[in-house]
Design a protein that fits this description.
Elements: E1 5-12, E2 18-28, E3 35-45, E4 56-61, E5 69-76, H1 81-87
Parallel strand pairs: 3-5
Antiparallel strand pairs: 1-2, 1-4, 2-3, 4-5
């Protein structure tokens, strides 16, 4: 069975080797027929502490690292637009 891969935005990097990623999903409401956005936070393992708040990252399902941490960082994406502008 393949491991699930999700993409989201880092909302916290305060923990040691841990990041919190907000993953947003969109679906059509069965009754109202409108597009609804729902989001959920996932705790992910970041071995090298490379992910920063605002980055778009990919996380993959893995063995449990702790009670709440069952995902790991597989790819750090591009930085947030405001972070890029601040560096320039």
């Amino acid at each position: 069975m393949p491991k699930r891969v999700l993409q989201g935005v880092v909302v916290s990097d305060k923990g040691e080797k841990t990041i919190v990623v907000k993953v947003e999903r969109r679906f059509t409401h069965p009754v109202m027929k409108k597009t609804v956005r729902r989001s959920k936070n996932y705790h992910a393992h970041d071995e090298t502490n490379v992910a920063k708040v605002g980055q778009t990252v990919s996380i993959e399902e893995c063995r449990p690292f702790s009670k709440t941490k069952t995902w790991k960082l597989i790819e750090g994406g591009a930085a947030a637009p405001e972070a890029t502008a601040a560096e320039a």
